[in-house]
Amino acid sequence: MNNVILIGIAGGSGSGKTSIANKLSEDLKESSLFVISEDAYYKNQDSIPMEQRLKTNYDHPDSIEIDRVISDLKSLKMGKSIQLPVYDYVNHTRSSESLTIEPTQVVIIEGVLLFVDPRVRDLLDIKIFVDTDDDIRFIRRLKRDIAERGRTADNVIEQYLDTVKPMYHQFVEPTKRYANVIIPEGVGNATGVEMIQSRIERILQDNKK
Predict the structure, then answer these.
(1) Sign of the CA dihedral running 66, 40, 189, 193
(2) Distance between CA 162 and CA 134 in Å, rounded?
(3) Containing structural domain, residue 174
(4) CATH of the domain at 36
(5) What's the average model confidence in pLDDT over 81-99?
(6) For the chain: N or C, fewer Cβ within 10 A?
(7) Max Cα distance, the chain (Å)
């Protein structure tokens, strides 16, 4: 497949990146589209004791296997399939399973640290930053991690104060300047989402010519 459109969505944890990606996926039903989470590329920690895994700073760029992210995005861009890793949040390591992902017309990849590495930014056709207030992001993260990732409230709060918030201001927020589009408050910003959707549709139309 030629002319694969790569769209990157970055922003802090709980900003609404996934919701926007899912909204675009729903609205562009007639297009071939797939959504990838950068979380899938957290490094494998099988050889590390659980006690040490629990101390991993997932909000630091070193937590991501960035060379594999770049390699997979290049493959998709060239119309090749990839083996997408699956991350096990409960056991804090990569699962032994992987998913075969075929290239689609549009590939959306979303992640907190997505715009940190210039090599990733250069591969993206559209770069979106979701800019949401710290308090709102924390509440969303608290609810999600308890409901979906087997965490306790105390664990979520401790992690947020120790790593999530400081890493956001050190690594994530500065990458906002690289975005083509900044969407305040996430998927609730209907105008911003519609603008992105229209832009994608125009690129798809141009690709058909």
Answers:
(1) positive
(2) 14
(3) 5-208
(4) 3.40.50.300
(5) 92
(6) C
(7) 56
